[in-house]
Amino acid sequence: MSDRFARFRRMSWRAVAGRSPRSVAGQVFLLQFALVVLLVLCGVIALVLQSERDTSTEAKRRSIAVAQTFAHSPGVLAALRTPDPSKILQPLTEAGRKAAGVDFIVVMDTKGIRYTHPMPSKIGQRFVGTIGPSLAGKVYTESVHGPLGHEVQATVPVDDARGHVAALVSAGLKVKNVASQVDRELPIILTAGAGALVVSTGGTALVGRRLRRQTHSLAPAEMTRMYAHHDTVLHSVREGVLIVGDDGRLLLANDEARRLLELPATAEGRNVRELSDLDPAMVELLVSGREASDEVHFAGGRLLAVNQRPTDTAGGPRGTVVTLRDSTELQAVSGRAEVARERLELLYDAGLGIGTTLDVVRTADELAEVAVPRFADFVTVDLADGVLHGEEPTSSASGMRRVAVSGIHDDHPLYEQGRLIHFKESTPQARGFGSGHAELVPDLSAADGWLAQDPERTRRILAYGIHSLIAAPIQARGVVLGTANFWRAEREPFDEEELSLADELVARAAVSIDNARRYTREHALAVTLQRSLLPRALPEQSALDVGYRYLPAQSGVSGDWFDVIPLPGGRVALAVGDVVGHGLHAAATMGRLRTAVHNFSTLDLPPDELLSHLDELVARIDQDEACPETAGEIVGATCLYAIYDPVSRTCVMSRAGHLAPALVHPDGRVEFPDVPTGPPLGLGGLPFRTAELELAEGSQLVLYTDGLIEDRRRDLDEGMELLRRALAGHPDRSPEDSCQAVLAELLPERPADDVALLIARTRALAPENVADWDVPRDPAAVSKMRLAVSDKLAEWGLAELGFGMELVLSELITNAIRYGSDPVHVRLIRDRTLICEVSDGSSTSPHLRYAATTDEGGRGLFLVQQMTERWGTRYSPQGKVIWAEMTMPDPSAPAKPVDPLELFADVD
């Protein structure tokens, strides 16, 4: 054993002695040994300090535990209530002190007077320490100089049953006892430190041996010479080498790198960002620290292939090594590749950005915006004027309208947008329009044909700096729609290669422009059809003051409609409807329904019966148009029909799946009347019900379609509330102004659905313009009625109509008495016309017929037809009403007497 130890000592000594201080390995060994000794020493000191801290912490913890245990022990509170607490507590505290391993346990009252102490002579004296925090219910630790010397003590409260502090308990240890524990641990710490020193020294020796092998026992001078040779080789190679530190400083640059990057002599040691001659992209790469493989960068007019790798992958210092190769000869090839890439990207963006809408002008704008500034400095688009209206273009470039202008500047002298241009045949635009091939003008100053178009403007264009032009025709399906003109001012002139790019760019836009043109034509036809089916002007009538608005949807025509129809007796019918869907089919169906409403209204049907007939009509339309191509399609339609009577001021209405109307009272209040809802038209099977409202004069009845209040951004209730707010509080506003205010409040800029809005302010016929009589069923009453009517007409200043009205009343009353039933009633109304109404309780309707020569009767209704403007029959729940209207005489025209013989001129 002793021989082995001696051999180890000799080997270790030889290993250490063999490391000459002259070698790098020896110097490193001494440095590492000194560092190990310093580290072990610091570690021993740290362990000693840590041991002292842990011991002190343990002493405080034990003091707190003992004090709390004793404070909560059974019998302590009882002992404190005895006349002599010390007699009971002193033996207990001494026994607990010895068992817990502390130096003292002191029980005191709330004033700090001791009940117990290891030294009995100190009982009854004041406690040395702070008791304030403990009186507040807290545990308090401190270091004091007490009767036993320097002590570490903890003071805790003793709480009674009510939670009040009854006394205090303090326990602790003397500091010297704590320090003695540290002294006992010190030999162990020093032994561990010595062991660590031995192990570390051995490890240092092994590292030194390995370093000796790796450096081949070279001395510093020898290594210096080796690095000198390395530098010679580094600066002689034809590849630039840079070493950049982690902080961005340039640590090394060989001669080739200095030449390629044109670095100053003082570049090494400076931050790369401070080298202002470097290209910004190169600076960004050098400071990024990322890996790069054969990236191409421009620097000093050269095209460099750059490789960059981090230096810390094998445990070296943080930084990067960069190599540079001059690849200028690849610049031309890469330039052409870049140009091809940019052109492909331009065509790709044109495919995405052109034709986003079916609007001719917007599509032309998109073509101009895509090409500027990536292909041209200025772009103008000229289209045949008819294309803007959906028509086929002309065969020449005469009459081209400039629809789009875009450029890098706004002060250019080119023709402004919206101008109608007539290109001469010598211009590139006219030649390209006629041939269908793009025209290249590399030098505008030498283009005589272009200069002849407008000498003054072309002179200003050349003075502005515009020097080159490509005029590419816009053609689709073999038809030329216009030309796209690409101008350059601040770039090189166009060449032949760019001519094909212009053709391809325009071809992508031509299809979209043609689609937009065809859509414009179809849309215009549909809108024209729809507007022809809607009322162009409202009929004259005295019962209502009407305002209306119709707005077609932006996406196409639809089936919303409205109508105002005068009825006999001064009454007026209001109708609003909506056919589901868009397009020509919806517009045509809307026209059929509106015509049907007109036809049914001539029969003077109540609203519920009229909707029943409409319902049957729509059902027949569904059946007649059913075919395999449209299987499952039905006509969906809604309608609201109302009749207003200015004499009684009543409004009877019914609706088939339509929205309820709004009613604006004369005081400005708005309500939505409870009109019974019927099923939409075409479903059948359910009856329609009516609602009768009595309207004050000046009330406004608002009828509308769902496009006014329904929107994807809000629900129906919100739209109804917006309509209420738009109508409320303006009782004196005219219907036209109300229509404008409602549309401005509810509709977006581009409504998705068409809108029909009808607002009617009610008028009442004055009582002095109405006269009525009950007629007994007695032939003798006819003469009395003729006299009464004659007197009333004289009172109204219409005596000249007396003969004709007496004749008409005689025939109508006679028929009612002879063929009708009670009650018989006569009403005379003075409105725009003179209206005569005879009602009775029978539902039998009279019919006009032509009497034979030998017939004694049958000519009464014929005489009524000859004397009146029009006449007819309407039915009511009480029977029927036969009415007749006579034209009121013009007060400014001279009176013309009626010749009774003229009435029989056509009678055989």
Outline the structure in words.
Strands 12-11-10-15-14-13 form a six-stranded antiparallel sheet, with helices on both faces. Strands 17, 18, 19, 20, 23 and 24 form a six-stranded mixed sheet that branches. Strands 6-5-9-8-7 form a five-stranded antiparallel sheet. The protein is flat. By secondary structure, the protein is of the alpha+beta class. It has 22 helices and 31 strands. Helices cover 40% and strands 23% of the residues. A hairpin with a 4-residue loop joins strand 5 (240-245) and strand 6 (250-253). Helix 2 runs antiparallel to helix 6 and helix 10 runs antiparallel to helix 11 (360-371).
Lay out the secondary structure.
Layout: H1 2-17, H2 24-71, H3 76-81, H4 85-100, E1 104-108, H5 132-135, E2 140-146, E3 149-159, E4 165-174, H6 175-215, H7 220-236, E5 240-245, E6 250-253, H8 255-261, H9 280-288, E7 292-299, E8 302-310, E9 319-326, H10 331-353, H11 360-371, E10 378-384, E11 400-407, E12 420-421, H12 428-435, E13 439-441, H13 448-451, H14 455-464, E14 468-476, E15 479-488, H15 496-533, E16 544-551, E17 558-566, E18 572-582, H16 584-602, H17 607-624, E19 637-645, E20 650-656, E21 662-664, E22 670-671, E23 677-678, E24 691-694, E25 700-704, H18 716-727, H19 735-746, E26 755-762, E27 770-775, H20 781-796, H21 802-819, E28 824-830, E29 833-840, H22 860-867, E30 870-876, E31 879-887
Parallel strand pairs: 20-23
Antiparallel strand pairs: 1-4, 2-3, 3-4, 5-6, 5-9, 7-8, 8-9, 10-11, 10-15, 11-12, 13-14, 14-15, 16-26, 17-18, 18-19, 19-20, 20-24, 21-22, 21-25, 25-26, 27-28, 28-29, 29-31, 30-31
